[in-house]
Design goal:
This protein is α/β, with parallel strands linked by helices. It folds into 3 domains: 126 residues, 3-Layer(bba) Sandwich (Glucose Oxidase, domain 1), CATH 3.50.30; 110 residues, Enzyme I, Chain A, domain 2 (Orthogonal Bundle); 321 residues, Phosphoenolpyruvate-binding domains (TIM Barrel, Alpha-Beta Barrel), CATH 3.20.20.60. It is 45% helix and 13% strand. The chain has 24 helices and 16 strands. The longest helix is centred in the first third of the chain and has 26 residues.
């Protein structure tokens, strides 16, 4: 049966991961193939094993070929590490051994590989951190590549795209995304994916509007169908009417004008109209992201996630490996500071040596600082590496998921123990290194006045704080609508933390997604926050809004918002006020 005719102005809503508006015709990549399963005889096992190993080699050759193609493209060079990650997955001994074990149990290679990938995917799905959970998409991309090699499928449609193509796919691998030509591809949509997937990161780097997580778009769209992709809002419009086309063409021109204007803001001071200074820092996972952060105007790194060093390996990184990574980022961002967060994932999610029993509620289980304080030796290795790196730049240490004073004191005691060991060995470090904590549990909010004297700084992780305060898993489609950053409880929680920090002279910042959302900026400034850390592409937009805000007006606005009883009323009032105060920025299109 063919697909039914698409009605005019059919709307699909997904996750906007790369801002901008693309208008063109759909090019559908149908790359999914059913995984065939049959039982092989004992005599066929060696043949299937050989097929598997040959497919791994061919897949590796393909990735090396892509690396060669993009190595001379400056805007992609810093992302070659993604292809290296896929090459490492091809060499992953857990994936290889599980697949080969299943082949020896008389499964054909396609089925064996599919089952091995599913087992590994389950581990990733339990991870709380959005960025780390999205690494399962890299696993899927590698798996699909191997399956295509096994099936003898070659799809060169990306090499033959017409101009103004909107690429639609169930999923688009990073390798495919790297080969998209911006001169021909005006946007893309996928059924799968999230904001922190490598494909999304690449889309932002390429400047191609993208909407992902549409679930079943490829089952609906047709080749050559006219469509509009709004990567800012996550909206896709199929078969747009003339009026809709004209409206989005205006939005597209307005967005592109703003993008050009933003270039002028990167080197300007981050200050309000009444001369209140605000420090804008970047959230990073990789040293290779530092040049991009610098280019976008980041004054240091407010959150450096160390979890990436622990992924795709059977044993934890050595002190030397960690020291090399931490010292490199410290030198790269100097003289600005880098805040290094200690390990923020449970050990059962990625380290073979620290496998734990399955937990019924991993979000509230043995993770983050709780895991570190159980695995003291692992923790001390990381602390040694961070301390040693502090000799090469302005380094700060941050402990995640703190819920009480006792945890901080234990962390500081271990830190002092490591300092003594380094002193005895004559190894240099910054003796005045600052320590801080993530405020992301309701307990930490309630006792913020007790926590403040124990540390040099607070960093509010709004993503987890909102989920824990509102008891909402935003990844659960049934309750995601309850995830409200402007809920009165969240505003009051942020005020409690800011007031406690002010009373004790403790620095306080925000490193969650709220920090990078221009619409929330007046609220954060009005609450008293003077340091924000965000994904670096957000910095120019936030800086532009900041330079047109008055801190005094923002404080009055917050006092007004605090009186509303529901998050919806708060959001409505904020939206109205921002459109009134800054019509050029919020009046006609989403920033």
């Amino acid at each position: 049966m063919g697909k039914t005719e698409i009605q005019q102005d059919t709307y699909l809503v997904g996750v906007g991961v790369s801002p901008g508006i693309g208008i063109g015709r759909i090019c559908l990549l149908n790359r999914l193939s059913h995984v065939l399963e049959w039982e092989i005889s004992a005599a066929e096992i060696d043949t299937e094993l050989a097929r598997f190993r040959a497919a791994l080699a061919t897949a590796a050759d393909q990735l090396h070929e892509v690396k060669q193609k993009v190595s001379n493209q400056e805007h992609l060079r810093e992302h070659i590490y993604i292809l290296d990650t896929h090459l490492l997955i091809l060499e992953d001994q857990l994936l290889i051994s599980q697949t080969e074990d299943l082949i020896r149990q008389n499964f054909n290679v396609e089925s064996a590989l599919d089952q091995a990938l599913k087992k590994m995917r389950v581990m990733f799905e339990k991870i709380e951190d959005d960025y780390l959970r999205e690494r399962s998409s890299d696993l899927d991309a590698v798996g699909q590549r191997i399956q295509r090699v096994l099936a003898g499928i070659t799809d060169n449609r990306l090499e033959k795209l017409d101009e103004k193509s909107l690429v639609a796919a169930h999923d688009l691998s990073p390798a495919d995304t790297m080969q998209l030509e911006k001169s021909k591809v005006v946007g893309f949509i996928t059924d799968r994916g999230g904001r922190t997937s490598h494909t999304a990161i690449l889309a932002r780097s390429l400047g191609i509007p993208a909407v992902v997580g549409l679930e079943s778009a490829t089952a609906v769209v047709q080749n050559n169908l006219p469509a509009i992709v709004d990567g800012s809002t996550g909206v896709v419009i199929l078969n747009p009417s003339e009026d809709t086309f004209k409206e989005y063409l205006k939005r597209k021109l307005a967005f592109e004008y703003l993008e050009k204007e933003l270039c002028h803001y990167r080197d300007l001071a981050a200050e309000t109209t009444d001369n209140v200074q605000v420090v804008l820092r970047a959230n990073l996972e990789l040293v290779s992201d530092v040049p991009g952060a610098r280019q976008d105007g980041a004054c240091g790194i407010g959150l450096y996630r160390t979890e990436f060093l622990y992924l795709n390996r059977e044993t934890p990184p050595t002190e030397k490996e960690q020291f090399q990574a931490y010292s490199k980022i410290a030198r790269s961002i100097a003289p600005d500071p880098v805040t290094i967060r200690t390990l923020d994932v449970g050990g059962d999610k990625f380290l073979k040596d620290f496998s734990l029993e399955n937990e019924d509620n991993p979000a509230m289980g043995l993770r983050a600082v709780r895991f570190s304080l159980r695995e003291i030796d692992l923790f001390k290795v990381q602390l040694r590496a961070i301390l040693r790196a502090s000799a090469f730049g302005q380094v700060r240490i941050m402990f995640p998921m703190i819920s009480g004073v006792a945890e901080i004191r234990t962390c500081k005691r271990l830190l002092n123990c490591v300092k003594s060991e380094l002193d005895a060995q004559g190894i240099a470090y910054d003796p005045e290194i600052k320590t801080g904590i993530m405020i992301e549990t309701p307990a930490a909010v309630m006792i913020a006045p007790l926590l403040a004297p124990e540390v040099d700084f607070f960093s509010v992780g709004t993503n987890d704080l909102i989920q824990y305060c509102l008891a909402v898993d935003r990844g659960n489609e049934h309750v995601a609508y309850l995830y409200e950053p402007l809920h009165p409880a969240i505003l009051r929680a942020l005020k409690l933390v800011c007031d406690a920090a002010k009373e004790t002279g403790t620095d306080v910042s925000i490193c969650g997604e709220m920090a990078g959302e221009p619409m929330y900026l007046a609220v954060l400034i009005g609450l008293g926050l003077r340091e924000l850390s965000m994904n670096h592409p957000c910095i120019p937009r936030v800086k532009r809004v900041l330079r047109e805000l008055s801190c005094a007006d923002a404080e009055k606005l917050v006092a007004k918002l605090m009186k509303f009883p529901t998050g919806k009323e708060v959001a409505t009032c904020l939206d109205r006020e921002m459109r009134r105060q800054l019509p050029d920025l919020f009046g006609t299109f989403v920033i």
